[in-house]
Amino acid sequence: MDKFHKALEYALANEGGYSNDPLDHGGATMYGITQKTLDSFRLLGVGSAFPLDVKYLTKDQAGIIYKAKYWFFEPIKDERTAIKLFDMAVNLGPTKAIKLAQVSANAVLPSLALEVDGKLGPATIAGINSIPPSMFLEDLVEELKNFYVSLNQPRFLLGWLKRAARLPSE
Fold it and tell me: Which domains, ranges and CATH numbers included, belong to the chain?
């Protein structure tokens, strides 16, 4: 199985199926895909055959959306790191996930001095790839936990902290 499909399985296990919790700012979701994301994907024409209502999205369709809009992590050499970053992008959005990765990379190896801009450019990729994966992932988990705590949403915090601590298997 390729890196993307491993990452997809990992993220889908975290996301689950349909949800429409009124306290969740994302609104209705299926496999972590929001109605807004589905609508924007359909507008591109690529997903015009996808359902109008996110409730009827299939896993295969979710995978197509995730590969097109969230999978930027193929250049990350360590598979576990790429999978964790993808899962974060699914949960937080790609920009926030990449910013947290840049903060972590700078914390572990300050000489990198990466710009925290949320863009997975050559410097960020090289920086992440230059750090021992276990060191990077350890800091990344702590950054992610701190971010979740800062959201001040106690109803979701325990689940988020468990997700933050969970790492892909080796």
Answer: 3-69 (no CATH), 79-165 (1.20.141.10)
Strand partners, 34: 29
- pLDDT for residue 105: 98
pLDDT value at position 44? 79
How long a stretch of residues is the chain? 170
pLDDT beneath 50: ranges in the chain? none
Range 11-45 burial, b when 16+ CB lie within 10 A, else e: bbeebeeebeeeeeeeebbbbbbbbebbeebbeee
